[in-house]
Specification:
Strand content: under 5%
Helix content: over 70%
Structural class: mainly alpha
Distance between the termini: 22 Å
Number of strands: 0
Largest sheet: none
Low-confidence stretches: none
Radius of gyration: 15 Å
Mean pLDDT: 84
Keywords: Membrane, Transmembrane, Transmembrane helix
Order of helices and strands: HHHH
């Protein structure tokens, strides 16, 4: 099952990139903000579902991945490239911290 997760993750990312390019080609550059807001809303709904199941460690990990998405969405809305890049870079800072924290919790 773990082998399928990596493949599924790559497949979802590639499909999302393709979908985004299709939508931008059809509706223009402003649709990117709407796509990001939709992704943010879905992420927050998933976070609420995780909280409902009382899995607080998973909630912390999911929240740490939603924060960069929120920063990137605000950066795109304000048309600020630096804020968008900061949100993207924040992802690469938070992911290793959460992986290390999760590994320590499992021990």
């Amino acid at each position: 099952m773990k082998k399928n997760r990596a493949f599924l993750g790559v497949l979802v990312v590639l499909l999302t990139i393709r979908f985004s390019r299709f939508m931008v080609g059809k509706y223009g550059e402003d649709i990117r903000i709407k796509i990001m807001v939709a992704a943010l809303v879905v992420s927050i709904l998933c976070l609420v579902g995780i909280i409902y199941k009382k899995k607080y460690l998973a909630t912390l990990i999911a929240l740490s991945l939603i924060v960069p998405l929120l920063v990137m969405t605000i950066g795109m809305y304000l048309d600020n490239l630096y804020l968008g890049v900061f949100g993207f870079g924040l992802m690469f800072i938070l992911i290793p911290i959460m992986i290390k924290y999760k590994n320590e919790e499992e021990k």
